[in-house]
Structure formats: C-alpha cells, structure tokens
Amino acid sequence: MSAGAGELGRPRPAVPPGERGATRIADRVVSKIAAQAAREAVGQPAKGAARPSADVVVAHRTARIRIHLELDYPTDIGARCAAVRRHVAERVVALVGMEVPEVAVHVERLHPVPVQGAAGRTR
C-alpha cells in the first residue's frame, strides 16, 4: 500500500477561516453591477438619453462608486439622485458583499420632455 492510498478514507481536518483563500471581485464586475442598479433606479430613460454608467474603485472590501447618468426634465433631480444612490449601494452590498461608503451621482445631461397640452418653448 502506498502512503497516499491509506489517506483516502480519512476525513480532512478543517482549515481555519483565516488560512483559507480569498475571492477577489474585479472592479469591472462591481462597475457593471452598479451601472445595472442605476438603470433599475432611473427607470425608463428619456428619449435619446445614454444608459447610466459607473466608475468604481475597490480597496479591500470597500467600493467607492461614481454613477454617470442622464435624466428627463422637468424632474426632482435631488430625489432621483438620492434614489439612485440608495439603490446602487443596496444592490452592491447584497450582490457583492462590499461596504459602499460613497456613491457619487453625476448628472451629465437633462433631456426636456414635452408636456401634454403645453404650448410654447421650453427654457
């Protein structure tokens, strides 16, 4: 019997958590998750609006996120940005398990939406 054959039936000792390997999630993956979460929070984009995108910096178990998006106008910009911040942070924590101390939302452009029954120009 070889030395390795006798060890097949023995259970392996448990490896302490501190000595186990680690899973690293790439910045690009977190960026895609954040952009998708921003799309979910914004809802149907205005006609001609670009899809939201995200830049992410991951350090240890922390993700700092910057969202770039376009909104329809008129809208409550502050409330919409707050909803995007909240939803992006919740989704990244839930799906990736990283702490999200900062979600910066940059509104790149506002798209005027014609109001039904209104005549005149949009300023």
Please describe the topology of this protein.
Elements: H1 27-42, E1 53-59, E2 62-73, H2 77-96, E3 99-112
Helix pairs in contact: 1-2
Biggest pleated sheet: 3 strands, mixed
Spans of at least 5 consecutive residues with low confidence? none
Global geometry: elongated
Q: Helix and strand succession?
A: HEEHE
Mean pLDDT score, rounded? 86
Structural class: alpha+beta
What is the C-alpha radius of gyration, as a whole number of Å?
Answer: 23 Å
Strand order of the largest sheet: 1-2-3
- Report the β-strand fraction as a percent range: 25-35%
Distance between the termini: 88 Å
Number of H- or I-type helical stretches: 2
Helicity range of the residues? 25-40%
Number of strands: 3
Protein described:
The chain has two helices and three strands. The protein is of the alpha+beta class and 123 residues long. A three-stranded mixed β-sheet has the order 1-2-3, covered by helices on one side. A hairpin with a 2-residue loop joins strand 1 and strand 2. Helix 1 (27-42) crosses helix 2 (77-96). The mean pLDDT is 86.
